[in-house]
Amino acid sequence: MRRLYSGAVPRAKTLPALWLISDARNDAVIERALAALPRGSGLIYRHYHLDGAERLARFRALRRAAKARGHVVVLADSALTAREWGADGIYGAPRALWPRRAGLIHLATAHDLAELGLAARLGADAALLSPVFATRSHPDGKTLGAVRFRLLARQTRLPVIALGGMTKARARALRWKGWAAIDGLSR
After folding, report:
1. Is residue 41 part of a domain?
2. How far apart are CA 141 and CA 132, in angstroms?
3. Based on the structure, what is the number of domains in the chain?
4. Which domain holds residue 63?
5. Which of 135, 178, 165, 166 is closest to 18 using CA atoms?
6. Does residue 10 fall inside a structural domain?
7. How much is the pLDDT for 151?
8. Per-10-residue mean pLDDT, the chain, length 187
9. How far is CA 154 from CA 49, 61, 95, 107, 127, in A?
10. pTM for this predicted structure
């Protein structure tokens, strides 16, 4: 795994710089996308479209594929479920990650400076700041844009992961190592 830096002081924990996020729209190609990621990348498993046993079964299959490539697997669910399912961490809004659970990676969602601050105060390991660019999920939604993203990301000591309309080319243009995508890593 490569060390991920925010614009400020790096934290001691080493996190993947690249994260694939699962969704109903990339489910058919997600195994291929996982295999194409550099070793030691990350998977954030959401699959909100599946219920109960079906969601667990799909998680297990994707965890197996991810672990075969040395990837970190984070679950969008509770710490209890993450432990039961064998995930490496949890993903969600900052308050959903509290209280901090030892042994799990905590990835917080953030959309503004207040949420970045809350994520840091509640002990998140990193924050996914979004949306940087327009996305298929929210095509008409307000975006941060490159300049605002970089300004916000530099205001926190947390590692910041760019999310929202991200592709390899956009990450390079943004000059930001840590990024995550659904479509941008699934094509």
Report:
1. yes
2. 11
3. 1
4. 18-182
5. 178
6. no
7. 97
8. 39 81 96 97 97 96 98 97 98 94 96 98 97 87 95 97 97 96 94
9. 34, 37, 22, 17, 12
10. 0.91
Cβ(50)–Cβ(65) under 8 Å? no
Cα separation, 125 vs 44, whole angstroms = 14
DSSP state of 58: H
Other residues' Cβ atoms within 10 Å of the Cβ of residue 54: 11
CATH number of the domain that 156 lies in? 3.20.20.70
**What's the helix, strand, coil split of the chain in %, to 5?**
35, 20, 45
- Here the tokens at position 6 are 């925010």
Give 113-182 as a 3 state SS string.
HHHHHHHHHCCCCEEEECCCCCCCCCCCCCCCHHHHHHHHHCCCCCCEEEECCCCHHHHHHHCCCCEEEC
Tokens coding 90: 């949890």
Torsion sign over Cα 130, 136, 142, 148: positive
